[in-house]
Design brief:
The chain has 257 residues and is α/β, with parallel strands linked by helices. Helices cover 47% and strands 12% of the residues. A 5-stranded mixed β-sheet has the order 3-2-1-4-5. α7 packs across α8.
Length: 257
Amino acid sequence: MDFSKMSFKEIQNYIDLLGSEKKYSYIDTLNQDTRKNVKKLAEKLSKQQEKNRAEIERLKTLWQYEGKCLKFGFESIAGLDEAGRGPLAGPVVASAVILPKYELIEGVNDSKKLSEKKRDELYEKIQDIAVDIGVGIVDNTLIDKINIFNATKLAMKRAIESMKIKPDFMLIDALEIADINIKQKSIIKGDSKSISIAAASIIAKVTRDRIVKEYDLTYPDYKFSKHKGYGTKEHYDAIMKYGITPMHRKSFLKNIR
């Protein structure tokens, strides 16, 4: 491509239409151009390329646990994580995700490190790409009966049971499930170390947030869509003013009448 006869705007528009690998192949050519704005475009592309390379390496690292399982002959490896252990209201939601072997989904990370917009985008990507996804939900009433720890494990069991494909190995974020006949490994901070756990954390978080947002329709004074049931000052103030709703975990609010 001869950029010398093209204006900067024409070059920019042409580059914008190309896929990543193709546009990066023009970096050296753009650098040889004498125009400053064209050289700046080359510099921008070079930085994007380096950022993309770093992201690919990060994602490859996230496959370390799944990769070991595959080498030992396991085929269907599910990552499990939950959302909602700490809030004052709403359910605890768990998800189990099986990803295609060595699939690199750009941006996948611990859901807590992502913006709500990015989580929503990745939720859709994971839904499209995943081999299988399971979701388990335990509501606030049952949480009060069996406690949040047991409710979390139950939500994970329900997530596994809801899958069409039964995993032959589970990677679980910081928990073990004793009464399930599937080999497993508990990984501390697994949502930042395992790609399938990270994917599960996103599915669980987005699913739970969408459930809790619906509470606004019945209880608009509590602003559930803003704090998602967590114990913010605004949430506590609403409880003190309007009382405890049927969506609240009474075992988390024993000192409030």
